[in-house]
Write a structure and sequence with these properties.
about 550 residues; alpha/beta; FAD/NAD(P)-binding domain; Flavocytochrome C3, Chain A, domain 1; Methane Monooxygenase Hydroxylase, Chain G, domain 1; 3 domains; four-stranded mixed sheet; about 35% helix
Length: about 550
């Protein structure tokens, strides 16, 4: 039997975006926080590098803005970029106030300032970090504070099935009313009602065969928002991290960009360097350039990896700056202090997503999106390294202010029916789900990866159309499971990525096609997909 839960604000997603928003809201409203697994399994937890912010008097807001615009292929929204960058130092200070311990410069009296590193695409050292496990430090600290707050109710091991909106219930307008949520432990779908709902579900990079992300990154928020009537933008821009460890047992372990920022070199198996042939910044070029260069060398030479080498640095320096990476590499048989380490690119970050304004508001009244699931206008055609956690923090604050201002005007709906599974049965063909999952991830990797062509995209579109029709029939007849929900969402997101890529007849940032290798001024705008059920939102509160 379905149970109904009621909160003022329902946050779907337990990463840094969702946790920071929950903490900013909870002193004033009752918050329900849904996490697909334990809080130890969000993508945020695996973020190694750090948070980009202007914290040094040798740096400037204008320099950080310019670096972000350059990395984004001049497709970022300058107003949004400046807003985020200007709030960077305050966001970092908020984390420090929460108890996050960032790495400091060595000092005899222990009072050294915070250590700032430099990553690809940055013109200055501006990345504050907690050794090489910044995401873990931030996520762990915020998780502890969320768990201790009396106004936050945490629902771990729950996955959202779909948003509940007034339009879906044939009520006036299109306002979010809550969500149907599957309790993964009991296998029952529960009803959650709320005055406002926030999607903080992360990216969709499990749509690719090789990714740096954990299993939770299945595009749930993007797919649910699309079905609810939200516009989706720039899904063709999927960032591939250049340096994922190449090892059969380390499929999602990346080697932070900070290694290259501290002098690491990319080498071919014969020891020769190659990045200077592709960009004058060499290893410090933005991720899209580095990933394409590696992909080019691998295909031209018929090799299955390149190497990342920082062994020329003192061993003490390497162990001090990258203790976790050093230890993990040793587990896989590689000594970072003594030898090059094999690496390959892997899908890492979804630069597009649910369209929002500067407050995190979407096209559906009362529905917000923050973090990787959102398209805010910050990243453009390629995300600048370490701007992701910064975006999470800045937009969590912006959304919290807007929600607190607007929530007194939103009531709770009394018209929400419980989840109905009276006409479905348990599946006797679970193997279909696993086979479809494998097929999807393989053709996305082969046809919609780092380098694309019109022919590859057309092949992918035919296959995703067939998968979508099969999954729609399957979803309508069988009881929902976690695997089925994730497959349904990933297939929807794959379709959005393919359609967006087919519309962009140029190469820009993370979208590179052999049929249109040049950048064209005709496409100097975002790619926006509009769902059939789109309704222009009611007048938003200023």
């Amino acid at each position: 039997m379905s149970t109904q839960y009621t909160h003022d604000v329902l946050i779907i997603g337990g990463g840094i975006a969702g946790l920071s928003l929950a903490l900013r809201l909870a002193d004033r409203v009752r918050v329900g926080l849904i996490a697909k697994g334990p809080l130890t399994e969000s993508a945020s937890l695996y973020a190694q590098g750090g948070i980009a912010a202007v914290l040094d008097n040798q740096d400037s807001i204008d320099a950080h803005v310019e670096d972000t615009l350059n990395a984004g292929g001049r497709l970022s929204d300058p107003e949004v970029v400046r807003q985020v960058v200007e709030h960077g130092a305050d966001s970092v200070q908020w984390l420090i106030d929460q108890g996050v311990l960032f790495t400091r410069e060595p000092g005899e009296d222990g009072s050294g300032g915070y250590h700032l590193t430099r990553e690809g695409g940055h013109s200055r050292r501006r990345v504050i970090h907690a050794a090489d496990a910044t995401g873990r430090a931030v996520e762990t600290t915020l998780s502890e504070r969320v768990g201790a707050h009396k106004n936050i109710t945490l629902y771990e091991h729950h996955i959202a099935v779909d948003l509940i909106t007034s339009a879906k219930l044939d009520l006036p307008g299109n306002r979010v009313l809550g969500a149907y949520v599957l309790d993964r432990n009991s296998s029952h779908v529960q009803t959650f009602t709320a005055r406002s709902v926030v999607l903080a579900t992360g990216g969709a990079n499990k749509v690719y065969l090789y990714t740096t992300n954990p299993d939770v990154s299945t595009g749930d928020g993007i797919a649910m928002a699309w079905r609810a009537g939200c516009r989706i933008a720039n899904m063709e821009f999927i960032q591939f991290h250049p340096t994922c460890l190449y090892h059969p047992k380390a499929k999602t372990f990346l080697l932070t960009e900070a290694i290259r920022g501290e002098g690491g070199k990319l080498r071919l198996p014969d020891g020769s360097r190659f990045m200077e042939q592709f960009d004058k910044r060499a290893e410090l070029a933005p991720r899209d350039i580095v990933a394409r260069a590696i992909d080019h060398e691998m295909k031209c030479l018929g090799i299955d990896h390149v190497c990342l080498d920082i062994s020329h640095k003192p061993a003490e320096f390497i162990r001090g700056h990258f203790p976790n990476i050093y230890a993990r590499c040793l587990e896989y048989g590689y000594d970072l202090t003594a030898e090059p380490v094999p690496v390959v690119p892997a899908a890492h970050y979804t630069c597009g997503g649910i369209m929002t304004d500067i407050h995190g508001r979407t096209d559906v009244d009362g529905l917000y999106a923050i973090g990787e699931t959102a398209h805010t206008g910050l990243h453009g055609a390629n995300r600048l390294a370490s701007n992701s956690l910064l975006e999470c923090l800045v937009f969590a604050e912006a959304a919290s202010k807007d929600i607190q201002r607007a929530i007194p005007q939103w009531g709770l709906s009394k018209h929400i029916p419980p989840w109905d599974e009276s006409r479905v049965t348990d599946s006797d063909e679970e193997v279909v789900v696993s086979h479809n999952w494998d097929e999807l991830r393989r053709f996305m990797w082969d046809y919609v990866g780092i380098v694309r062509t019109d022919k590859r995209l057309q092949r992918a579109k035919r296959r995703v159309d067939l998968l979508n029709s099969e999954i729609h029939e399957y979803y309508g007849n069988f009881r929902v499971t976690n695997d089925l929900l994730e497959l349904r969402n990933l297939t929807q997101v794959a379709d959005l990525i393919i359609r967006s890529a087919m519309q962009r007849k140029e190469s820009r940032g993370l979208h590179y096609t052999l049929d249109y290798p040049q950048t064209s001024s005709e496409y100097a705008h975002s790619t926006i997909l509009v769902p059939d059920n789109y309704q222009a939102p009611a007048a938003q509160i200023a």
